[in-house]
Amino acid sequence: QVNCLAERGGVFLDLGRQDEAIADYARAIELDPNQAPRYNDRAWAYYSAGKYQLAIDDLDQSMLIDPEN
Q1: Backbone phi and psi for residue 16, each to the nearest 5 degrees, phi listed first
Q2: CB-based contacts of 54-58 (< 8 A; 24+ apart in sequence)
Q3: DSSP string for 7-30
């Protein structure tokens, strides 16, 4: 389910529907909070929506989970 949410979030993001992308990525993170790529995905959605501090926060969390990411 996490991968499906991430894929759908990507489609929403491609369509310019940032809020729906953010919601899908947030749900994916809720289901598996140890997936650094999901934080990266949501960070990009936040960035695209002009929510820069939230994007930075997600990137920080991603680096805590996987410093090599």
Answers
A1: 80, 15
A2: none
A3: HHHHHHHHTT-HHHHHHHHHHHHH
Is 80 exceeded by the pLDDT of residue 69?
A: no
Q: What is the dihedral of CA 1, 39, 21, 27, to 10 degrees?
A: 40
Give dist(CA 41, CA 23) in Å, integer: 11
To the question of pTM greater than 0.85 for the whole model, the response is yes
What backbone phi and psi angles, to 5 degrees, belong to 17? -100, 70
Average pLDDT, the chain: 96
Amino acid of residue 26:
A
